[in-house]
Amino acid sequence: MATKRSPALDRIDVKILADLQRNGRSTMQDLAAKVGLSPRASLERVRRLEAAGIITGYRAVIDVAHLSRPVNVFAEIILAKHVHGGQVERRLAAMEEVVECWEVTGATDYLARFACTDLAAYEALTTRLIDDPSLGISRIVSHVALRPVRRFVGYPESLLSERPR
C-alpha cells in the first residue's frame, strides 16, 4: 500500500497552520487577512491541508477546573516483559482517564497522563492495571501534578516548515 505524500508547504501554509492551532475558530475572512490571501484561496489551502492529514481535527480546549477538581497524575509505566506492549497500549487507549500516553525510551516504557476524579479512583485504576497478568506491568511510578506551568498551545512554527531530507 502506497503512503500518501504530504504536499509541499510554503510560508503561507505554515502561517495558516500556526494561526489555526492557536485559534481553530478563525473565520476564513480573519485567516485570509492574516496570511494575505482571499477567503476562497485560504479555504482551498485549509481543505488541502485537511485532505493531506496535516490538519487532523478541531477541538475545544476546556478548562476542567471550572467544572470539577480533577487529579492529574503523570505515570511512568514499566513492563516486566515487552511482549505485552500491544496489549498494554490497547488497554491504555481504551481508558477514558488516560488523556495522553507516550511510549518513551529509557527505564520507563510508557509515560501516561491520567485525569481522575480523585486519588482513590486513580489508585483503583492503577491497581487493576498492575494486577492484570495479561498486561505484564511490573511497576507504575506516579507523579501527582500540582499545577500547570505551561500547557500545550501548539507546536513551534519552526516545526511546521518542511526541512529538506
Polypeptide structure, described:
By secondary structure, the chain is an alpha+beta fold. The protein has two domains: 11-60, Arc Repressor Mutant, subunit A (Orthogonal Bundle); 64-144, Alpha-Beta Plaits, CATH 3.30.70.920. Helices cover 36% and strands 18% of the residues. It has helices at 11-22, 28-35, 39-51, 85-94, 119-131, 157-160; strands at residues 71-79, 98-103, 110-116, 137-144. It has a four-stranded antiparallel sheet, with helices on one face. A hairpin with a 6-residue loop joins strand 2 and strand 3. The longest helix has 13 residues, at 39-51. It is elongated, with a radius of gyration of 20 Å. The mean pLDDT is 91.
Concise overview:
The protein is of the alpha+beta class and 165 residues long. The chain has helices at 11-22, 28-35, 39-51, 85-94, 119-131, 157-160; strands at 71-79, 98-103, 110-116, 137-144.
What is the strand arrangement across the widest sheet?
Answer: 2-3-1-4
Q: Give the termini separation.
A: 22 Å
Radius of gyration over all CA atoms, rounded:
20 Å
Q: How many domains comprise the coordinates?
A: 2
**What is the string of SSEs from the N terminus onward?**
HHHEHEEHEH
Q: Mind telling me which CATH architecture of the largest domain this is? A: 2-Layer Sandwich
Write the layout of secondary structure elements.
Layout (H helix, E strand, L loop, with lengths): L10 H12 L5 H8 L3 H13 L19 E9 L5 H10 L3 E6 L6 E7 L2 H13 L5 E8 L12 H4 L5
Antiparallel strand pairs: 1-3, 1-4, 2-3
Helix pairs in contact: 2-3
